[in-house]
Each structure stands twice: as structure tokens, then as C-alpha cells.
Specification:
The chain has 74 residues and is mainly alpha-helical. The chain is built from 3 helices and no strands.
């Protein structure tokens, strides 16, 4: 019983990570980077090595760096 519960927990975590990735990507396409980063970070808490989440976060970070450099934010 415990083993099946642990297996189910892994499946649920995978679904949560996938959902966080999709929500983060959706908010990024709406140009709401703050909300996108929040969702992506939630997914990374469960699966730190998730390739797609890390890729989107890298892209969002680069966009923010460019924006700050153009606007003289730093």
C-alpha cells in the first residue's frame, strides 16, 4: 500500500511540474514575466533538473537583462 502511494505521489508530482511549466510558458507569451517566473519556480522546486523549465527561465532572464540594459535600470 505504501509503495503504491509513493508511486502515485511521483505521478502527481510529474503532473504538477508539467502544469507549472505550461502555466509559466502561457504567462510568458502574455508578457507577464513576473507571473511566469513564479509558476516556473514552483515547478523547479519539485524537479530542479527539468530541462524545459530551465530553458524558459533562461530566456526570460535574458529578456529582462536586455530590457534593463536598454532602459539603464542598473
Amino acid at each position: 500500500m505504501i509503495k503504491s502511494a509513493k508511486d502515485l505521489e511521483k505521478d502527481v508530482d510529474a503532473w504538477i511540474v508539467r502544469t507549472c511549466y505550461r502555466l509559466g510558458r502561457l504567462w510568458a507569451t502574455e508578457l507577464n514575466y513576473t507571473e511566469a517566473i513564479g509558476w516556473l519556480n514552483k515547478g523547479l522546486k519539485l524537479e530542479p533538473d527539468h530541462h524545459l523549465i530551465n530553458e524558459v527561465l533562461l530566456t526570460l532572464t535574458q529578456l529582462r537583462m536586455r530590457k534593463n540594459a536598454q532602459g539603464g535600470g542598473y
